[in-house]
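User: Could you check the structure of this?
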Amino acid sequence: SGEKFLSLLQREGIHERKTTHDTPAHNGVAERRNRSLLELCRAMLHDSGLPQFLWAEAVSHAAWLMNRTPTRSLGGLSPFEALTGETPMLSELLPFGQKVFVHAPNAPKTRSRAMPGHWLGLDDHPGSSSNGARLYLPGARRVAIERSFVVAPTVLARAIMQPPESTSPSVTQMAPLSPSSLSLSSPTPGHPHSHS
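Assistant: Sure, the predicted structure tokens are below.
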């Protein structure tokens, strides 16, 4: 009831402040925070290419990130640090939607032992004891909490880790470009711009 709610507010030291209905501008900080969460959600879903029905996962991860980001209003601390007194652990953080492969130990012998998935965030919310990650499994069209997975190498990581092939010319060996070499009218076989 209303009286129980008001006594709860009083007991917890929360001051009730009323605003005029249909005036979100009066809510200031809360409205700006909600707008920031939705903007982050939109950006993460767009960048990752994940389906729109994962919007709640994106908002949850955006809130997780914001709670671990330093802010001037807390003297350079993050809300997480101000609340717990601990520095947030960000070493296991991956980009939202990062492709991963989940270990599937019960897969039939002739099937792959790894299911493709996408990283949605860490499952370290209060009350959670999983110490796992939230992963979207497109094959099953569901979100699961998993601990046994590997991160798929990205194109950039492969380019950095793999040495260039010895047959390709190095930058110093390449001939300077001339206007005639930029013509695309008659592509040469094997050239990246040739059409086969």
